[in-house]
Amino acid sequence: MTRVLVTHADEPIGRRVVKNLYHDPNVEVIFALGSGPPPREFDAYLAGSEPRVTYTRLDLAKHRPVHDLFHSAGFRAANVDTVVYVPRHGVGTSLTTPLLGGLSERTAESRLLLQHCLETRTIQHLVAIGSAFVYRLPPGNANHLSEDSELNLDPNVMPEVRAWIDSDMIFHSEVHNDRLRVVLLRVPTVIAAGGYVYLHPSLAGRPGSRVRALGFDPICALVSDKDVARAVRAATRTPVSGIFNIAGGEAVPLSMLARWTGHTSIPVPGPLLGMLDATERALGIESRLGAGGGVHLRYGFTLDTDRAAEELGFRTQYRIGLARAGDGSLRLETASI
Length: 337
Prior knowledge:
By secondary structure, this protein is an alpha/beta fold. Helices cover 29% and strands 26% of the residues. α5 links the parallel β4 and β5 (125-131). The longest helix has 15 residues, at 105-119. The protein is globular.
């Protein structure tokens, strides 16, 4: 039986992961962490004298709270053997604001979590959700990327993608660890029911105005949040370590992705994108238009998922299509294949 810790369980993908693991007969206990109060849907999980799910509020980017958690009597009693790192992604979160020492929040979380997993002898397995936007994108839309494709190590990469790359390299460094099995899942844009979009560098967050490079409309690979949760579940069962692309069968142009997830897509000339990016960096603010100057606004990609099928036994079970919202507009929705 598996005893699992799940981070950021109060955010949308985290909630989905907890729900999927809760219905897995091989999972005995779920130790859920979040930055806010427990989600309302956790009420049934937390009920009873000996619930299978416990919930703890914690700032995962700060050393002292994380140290205290991993050395607490409650954590030791839980005897956790598997850790699932779900990164922050909910609306209103600050993903790249530098902390003390210049690290992004995501980088600090990744480093602290890995450190304590390596030091805690009961933990044998670490599953981390990463981003497919870490890959270097050559010009064009014909980029079909495998796990062996190059990472984007351009020093001028936008801060959001830089945080993903730093996190990726932290987990990647321990993939061949003899004691701790590490599985890194690289996912593209995540679509949830109702047309919500997560983990896209320029579209995540509340619906609003977003920019794209004039003359470009890059293809965006998609995956359902339900399939992300299923991939995590498959990874917790695997005896192997490694890096795996996780994606659905659909890919759409950025302009359509923006429109169908409730955003307004504004074509902007390339030089102006650069000026917006430079202004935001100089002012130390995060982009509200999703500018960033990233190559993902110009060049698209799809993902090769053969390795996940062969080694994890994972294949997507959900498709992403269009449905009418209550106001009559078309929105992306997920449905079983």
